[in-house]
């Protein structure tokens, strides 16, 4: 009984709404078989295993009634520590590259695998409001996107899930509420840009959301920013910092960085130039030319908010 989950915890783990659990219990009889001493519903390990099977079958397109029938007919063996029964197809679902991750990450992965965009965004927004941008990015969004990418590389499947998840993460990040602006930095924003051939701009959106959450002014030029556009924006805005993002080594251009560093040095007001992203690791002189390399979202926020 000590391992049993409340309806809310079970819903988070499975990546469904609590109302959906109640509906499945009422309509198909696939609900909790335990009660707390006070009579409240509690989901045991076998209950969770059956519901995982139901979620997988529904995600594969089976009508909920038939999926519930098959899940109830499934012969459950011993149950592992994370609540999955031996032989439960959901525990080895290639669309869930999260291993023994926490319930929030597992629930988000299952909702994404079913391509339930509304629920994915709802889960992300709830987590963002409770934990903040940096924590959600580093503990939920980034690990899941990375896992989906690795699955695609290995199996060439679930690319549609990765794209849907990226869109949902972007949508949730753009709805993060703005914090109160710091008077000391209100007039000089941080300028965020990708290198000219870099299309992978979601981490820049995460940094923008974290700065907005902290009330720090910023401007985002987005993916594939032409170098002249970056230089013109630098001259027009006089930002206190410029961050150049590159995800892939083939898209990190030392000439772009050198041009930005020269433009910043020639500006009438000081602008610190930073690199960010793994693409810069192989670019010689990047650390020397730039104000520094931002190694993570948490690091970037701390450095940029400190005024360095």
Automatic annotation (TrEMBL):
HTH merR-type domain span: 4-73
Low complexity composition bias: residue spans: 86-97
SUPFAM superfamilies recorded: Cobalamin (vitamin B12)-binding domain (SSF52242), Putative DNA-binding domain (SSF46955)
CDD domains: HTH_MlrA-CarA
Region spans: Disordered: 77-99
PROSITE patterns in UniProt: HTH_MERR_2 (PS50937)
Transmembrane segments: none
Domain of life: Bacteria
InterPro entries recorded: Cbl-bd_cap, Cobalamin-bd_sf, DNA-bd_dom_put_sf, MerR-type_HTH_dom, MerR_fam, Meth_synthase_dom
Keywords: DNA-binding
Molecular-function annotations in GO: cobalamin binding; DNA binding; DNA-binding transcription factor activity; metal ion binding
Organism: Nocardiopsis aegyptia
UniProt name for this protein: DNA-binding transcriptional MerR regulator
Pfam families: B12-binding_2, MerR_1
């Amino acid at each position: 009984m000590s391992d049993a989950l409340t309806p809310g915890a079970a819903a988070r783990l499975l990546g469904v709404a609590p109302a959906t659990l109640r509906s499945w219990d009422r309509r198909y009889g696939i609900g909790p078989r335990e009660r707390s001493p006070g009579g409240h519903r509690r989901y045991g390990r076998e209950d969770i295993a059956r519901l995982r099977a139901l979620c997988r079958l529904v995600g594969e397109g089976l009508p909920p009634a038939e999926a519930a029938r098959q899940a109830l007919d499934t012969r459950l063996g011993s149950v592992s520590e994370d609540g999955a029964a031996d032989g439960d197809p959901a525990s080895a679902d290639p669309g869930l590259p999260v291993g023994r991750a926490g319930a929030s990450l597992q629930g988000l992965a299952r909702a994404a695998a079913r391509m339930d965009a509304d629920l994915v965004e709802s889960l992300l927004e709830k987590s963002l409001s409770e934990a903040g941008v940096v924590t959600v990015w580093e503990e939920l969004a980034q690990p899941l996107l990375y896992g989906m990418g690795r699955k695609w590389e290995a199996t060439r499947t679930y690319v549609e899930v990765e794209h849907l998840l990226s869109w949902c993460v972007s949508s949730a990040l753009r709805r993060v509420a703005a914090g109160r602006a710091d008077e000391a930095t209100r007039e000089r924003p941080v300028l965020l840009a990708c290198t000219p051939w870099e299309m992978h701009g979601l981490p820049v959106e995460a940094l923008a959301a974290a700065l907005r959450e902290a009330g720090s002014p910023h401007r985002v030029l987005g993916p594939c920013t032409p170098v002249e556009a970056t230089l013109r924006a630098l001259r027009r805005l006089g930002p206190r910092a410029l961050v150049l993002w590159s995800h892939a080594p083939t898209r990190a251009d030392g000439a772009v960085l050198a041009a930005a560093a020269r433009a910043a040095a020639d500006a009438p007001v000081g602008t610190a130039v930073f690199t960010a992203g793994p693409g810069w690791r192989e670019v010689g002189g990047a650390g020397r030319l730039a104000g520094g390399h931002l190694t993570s979202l948490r690091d970037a926020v701390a450095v940029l908010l400190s005024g360095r």
